[in-house]
Amino acid sequence: MPPARKPDQSAPAQVSPTGVPFEAADGDRDPRAQAGDTVTSPNGVRIPDTDHALKAGRRGPTLLEDFHLREKVSHFDHERIPERAVHARGAGAHGVFTANGSAASITRAPVLAEEGLQTPVFVRFSTVLGSRGSADTARDTRGFATKFYTKEGTWDLVGNNMPVFFVQEAIKFPDLIHAAKPSPDREIPQAQSAHDSFWDFVSLHTEATHHVLWNMSDRGIPRSYRMMEGFGVHSFRMVNQARETVLVQFKWTPKLGVHSLTWEEAQLAMGTDPDFHRRDLADAIEAGAFPEWELGVQVFPDTEDQMFEGIDLLDPTKIVPEEMVPVQTIGTLVLNANPTNYFSETEQVAFNTGHVVPGIEFTNDPLLQGRNFSYQDTQLTRLGGPNWTQLPINRPHAPVNDDHRDGFMQQGVPTGQAPYSPNTVDDGSPQPAGWDEGGYVVVPRKVEGEVVREVASSFDDHFSQPAMFWASLSDVEKTHTVEAYTFELGKVYEQAIKERVLVVLATVDTELASLVAGGLGLPAPEGTPVEHLPASPALAQVRGESFPLDGRQVAVVAGPDADLTGIAALRRALDAEGAQLKVLAPRGGVLGSGEDQQVVERTNLTARSVEFDAVVVADGAPDDGDIKAVVLLQEALRQLKPFAAWGSGADVLTSAGVSGPGVFTGASVDDVVSDLVAAMGQHRVWERAELVTASAVPPAV
């Protein structure tokens, strides 16, 4: 973990990590900063002693007149704000979004349409169910929320790492979360869905089937936030300069590919490093391996029925396969700076699906309509009032003159005598802005219908898309999905709930239901699987593609007699690929001296396999049978990670039982580097999967 860095107190920063100046109240001081070298009270009075309260005599009573004591303790008493009801555990980063200009034909929003325009952003990743103190690697949906500080105002694209949602209407969302959260009597289980009430809810609301399958697949446990897709979930309306409209769905595609943890890795990380994902993100940015995504859109005609090839574009539980409508890249996101203060930025950042800019409008998606209310409403309690957009992390990078006044957390000092519009007292200022002045002018559209509590019949198909998703997965992903269902339902106590879920799965796919039933020791129900669209290869994570190694971690097992020259050469080769080498030895300290000296960064006591993407054993590495080192090697073997060894290092692998596909050995480090790099580009040694998982798939009953 990089050491904490003391800010430059002599010259408070005037520019945010995204390069955009913060507005300063006095013209020369960053309002975010705590400046100066002297301890002061909140109102700037210098304090001579912050360790002892004012007392009447050294052993006498504490005096109420000690304002510093009162202010210090009172602030501490109130320094916690309510955590988010969902997405409580998160990690964030600053960055920049660059438009490539290709969206100019579909939207007038410069953030997307103006070629080369760079817009500062703040992105927050999160889990959904767990509290702030839960583990990063729980099986769960991940939030992928992006705040664009555009010249026209703030645009919040509030998405997830899955393109579909559990429910079709916002009115069901409180029920979903109540069912998924820990039981109200014991407050367990924390940050997982493996319990009765969750499976009771999703088996009774079969619209959740599609999202549940995504969650039970490897998508539910990402390898890293840097290796995670993001989706806007809903259909949005785009408006161009000619006032022509289309419907779009947003997708973030990571440069490093889409990769996941194995279930064993996720469990190990929960114990050895509950902060695994937030540490991975921060360390990568600190090392200069800036995470990168392409923003793409699927574009659909804005027809009266808002359907496409029989798929309802207003149904958030459905997707349009990319083979039917390809994703068009419209820009690139790069995260290049970590937060300066977690609370001020990552915790206080507040998103709102209702924050859009001219050129982006809403559709009648009932879940989106409800979210537009909910996100605004929740900040009033969580952040203490209506002025939450004035917090530095939420402050627009565009001029604001809203005629709003007063309220909790008012940080501005409004001028003028007429906080209303229209007016003549302040010479009519501020004035409305029309289309030509960049105003948010909604394109007219017809709205009519009977007032009913119903949904369209096109929302009724709950199974064909889950069936398509299952059919699209690779064999190893199918195995992992079966294991996930078997684990989760194995934690369910009510037999009737298990049986109901199996009936749902039998409607999706007979093989899926049979395998899960076999793992539970239950008979497979008879079902008539639905017809579904052709399999979509884009939905599978394992597709034989190779990806960059930026930020990947490699362990090299070494010791006092190891080939340090070879380790130095390996480090240089991995540095050139953007990967990072960590020396792993029985004890800490330094190995050798001179140019090839190596600092021991991990020991057999502190390292576990989940931290590394590959393991290398150096020539001359100790072969003393250290059980912890052997466990790490055997874990990495099960987790399908590449291995390499040169010289006598091959004997260490052999004695630990490490052999087969993805294990590269040679006389020197030069003999194994290229094979190691190629294997890491595939993320895992998938050829080994059948050997590792063959015994894990339960036979059908």
Automatic annotation (TrEMBL):
PROSITE patterns linked: CATALASE_1, CATALASE_2, CATALASE_3
GO biological process: hydrogen peroxide catabolic process; response to oxidative stress
SUPFAM superfamilies reported in the protein's UniProt record: Class I glutamine amidotransferase-like (SSF52317), Heme-dependent catalase-like (SSF56634)
Region annotated Disordered, chain positions: 1-59
GO CC entries: cytosol
EC number: 1.11.1.6
Top-tier EC class: oxidoreductase
Catalytic activity: 2 H2O2 = O2 + 2 H2O
Key words of the record: Heme, Hydrogen peroxide, Iron, Metal-binding, Oxidoreductase, Peroxidase
Active site positions, chain numbering: 87, 160
Pfam families on file: Catalase, Catalase-rel, Catalase_C
Domain Catalase core: 40-429
Entries under InterPro entries matching the protein: Catalase, Catalase_AS, Catalase_clade2, Catalase_clade2_helical, Catalase_core, Catalase_haem_BS, Catalase_immune_responsive, Catalase_large_C
Single GO molecular function: metal ion binding
Record-linked Gene3D superfamilies: 1.20.1370.20, 3.40.50.880, Catalase core domain (2.40.180.10)
Keyword Iron annotated: yes
Cofactor(s) demanded: heme
Positions annotated to bind heme: 84, 124, 173, 371, 375, 382
Function recorded in the entry: Decomposes hydrogen peroxide into water and oxygen; serves to protect cells from the toxic effects of hydrogen peroxide.
Homology family: Belongs to the catalase family. HPII subfamily.
Xref: PANTHER family: CATALASE, CATALASE-B
Annotated protein name in UniProt: Catalase
